[in-house]
Amino acid sequence: MATDSATPTIACGARVRSQPEAHQRAGRLAAALIAAGVDRGDRVAVMARNDIEFLEISLAIASAGGNPVPINTRWQAPEVAHVLADSSVRVVFAHTEFVPVVEAAQAQAGAHSVVVEVAMPEELLAEAGLSEARAQTTGRHPTLEQWIAAHTDPVGHLEGAIADSMGLIYTSGTTGTPKGVLRERMTPQQLLSIAGGTVQRMGLTPGGQMLVAGPLYHTSPNVVAVLALRMGTNITIMPRWDSERFLQHVAERQIQQAKVVPTMLSRLLSLPADVRARYDVSSLTHLIHSAAPCPPTVKRAAIEWFGDALWEFYGCTEAGTVTWISAAEWLEHPGSVGRPADGSAVSIADENGEPLPVGEVGRVYVRGADYWPKFTYLNRGMPDSPVENMLWVGDLGRVDAEGYLYLTGRSSEVINRGGVNIYPAEIENAIMGVDGVEDVAVLGLPDTGDLGETVTAFVAARPGAELTADTLRAGLRGQLAGYKIPTELRLVDELPRDDSGKIYKRLLRQAYTAPPA
């Protein structure tokens, strides 16, 4: 379908689709879902790579009043089986690449969900660097295009469908089995407040340009992209992360808004200076990062590059976004993730819920914005909390006298060495300040003596950098107390992070058994 300059589009690689056409296709797919028996609030899973169809499917499920359940494309059959069984999924949309995983998961879960296969276009395969053989569908299931073709009339507006579609969302599962967060049905006022707050803070504008850099199976990129589609913001989707390709999109499409994670910022900074200088990034007004702690050295360098466009928020699936911080605020409060916004709240307390003094590290209890819905965990009930109306999701941190929050890590990651608590985030930030380091993870491994745990660091170098355990230790002297300097330093090619930037430290414990550097 031809488009004019005033018609908003969705672009992914060499494919471009007008948003009116995408809405039409989504409406017809919504009719197909209803015809297949999907009722209000029924769960419909999506296991697909970033592509135009991902947004159309998400919009269609919501338009029918179903509840979209995106599935991490890195998961294997047992992990997918957990979600299919836990949430009683009715229909699964899957790119051809993932159909065998979904079939195996169904067998393990004893599930009988309808599988709808989504063909993988050649343009997507080329952009993602995948084999052209994956363009051939399996033939074992109906396809997305067949479902759309079977319904010529799109579903019109269904009162309350959006509220029905926002009931369930899963946590990332980086520290264990993903939990289904079952939200209270939202009122129209809550929906408007969430949409309005997201548009304003995320920097979306009708007719503007936004870039989807992260995976659409993660909450933040998904929510922002679907909202952008509803309001007519031009959308460019990256099928996979590539640092220079990101800069190309920003410069060529005059991108104003993008959501990234600290790992992406670090990899952008790993590009040679002449490559970075090649691209004009001045169009960016909102380059937002979250999902994982950002090392101060990376943050400072990113602010020097992107200026006031750089924003950060901290939150969780259960409570939404809790704190925000601008570039200017961060320079005055380096290391902070901001102050509570929109009626949200943060309290630092001990395990009994007793408040701790300013500057002391403790549990980070949070409450969502005034308009944020209440929740329970699917099939698990309400979480216990010693602080009334507040939740602890495992993070540790402190606040300063002005109420700015600083994270020090998660409770499960605190290293106990000889009875002394050591916070990995402090060591990770120091290591990131050593020239040539691109990524790092610090954790405690069992000590062969009587000190409990050994401070162990896994370090990945920037391209072309020469790092050794000795140069790393030399860079840390004078920065950390001796007992905090890692006993073991292991140089690795890359670290196991999910696409939202969160580190799988449990995988590091399991996988890295080679002798230290």
Low-confidence stretches: none
- Mean of residue pLDDT? 91
Which sheet architecture does the biggest sheet show?
9 strands, mixed
Strand order of the largest sheet: 2-1-10-9-11-12-13-14-15
Any idea what the shape is?
Answer: globular
Percentage beta strand: 15-25%
| N-to-C span | 57 Å
Radius of gyration: 23 Å
Number of helices in the DSSP assignment: 17
Attribute tags:
517 residues, alpha/beta, 9-stranded mixed β-sheet, 4-stranded parallel β-sheet, 17 helices, 25 strands, 31% helix, 24% strand
Please describe what this structure looks like.
Helices cover about 30% and strands about 25% of the residues. The protein is of the alpha/beta class and about 525 residues long. The protein has a nine-stranded mixed sheet, with helices on both faces. A four-stranded parallel sheet has the order 4-3-5-6, with helices on both faces. A four-stranded antiparallel sheet has the order 16-17-19-20. About 45% of the residues are buried.
What can be said about this structure in brief?
By secondary structure, the protein is α/β, with parallel strands linked by helices. The chain has 17 helices and 25 strands. Strand 5 (91-95), helix 4 and strand 6 form a beta-alpha-beta unit.
